[in-house]
Amino acid sequence: xxxxxxxxxxxxxxxxxxxxxxxxxxxxxxxxxxxxxxxxxxxxxxxxxxxxxxxxxxxxxxxxxxxxxxxxxxxxxxxxxxxxxxxxxxxxxxxxxxxxxxxxxxxxxxxxxxxxxxxxxxxxxxxxxxxxxxxxxxxxxxxxxxxxxxxxxxxxxxxxx
Length: 161
Prior knowledge:
- By secondary structure, the protein is of the alpha+beta class.
- The protein has one domain (28-160): Glutaredoxin (3-Layer(aba) Sandwich), CATH 3.40.30.10.
- The chain is 26% helix and 18% strand.
- It has helices spanning 42-53, 76-87, 106-114, 152-160; strands at 9-11, 17-19, 27-33, 58-64, 129-132, 138-142.
- The strands form 2 sheets. It has a 4-stranded mixed sheet, with helices on both faces.
- The two termini are 27 Å apart.
């Protein structure tokens, strides 16, 4: 098992492999997303955080997932178009993945192990958020219902550390 998220790799929405070591020195907000969820408007808040804090070292990483209520049925190109058109998303999006079960992507296996939820390690719904410090260590897990704006103080604290 990886010591930090920087040891892992994920596939970008356009099919390119992305070593997460490229984000070394950045604060990360890693989110499992979906286009047809009641929490989908959180894309707007995630984009706003990204725009406000990117220059200081924040990266938001979106990982679409279709494991909850079939709320992310589209393909990768369709998801990217939806996010850009409806929410102006410019932060990195990755290929659709699984966050629970036998097919859990290694990034989410690492995140869940480092920050289990109140009811266990499994992710319960779309838009679960993980805050990662500049050294690649998971700092905190936030529930789906936590709006991105509520993470701003924690993000600013990590950015100033």
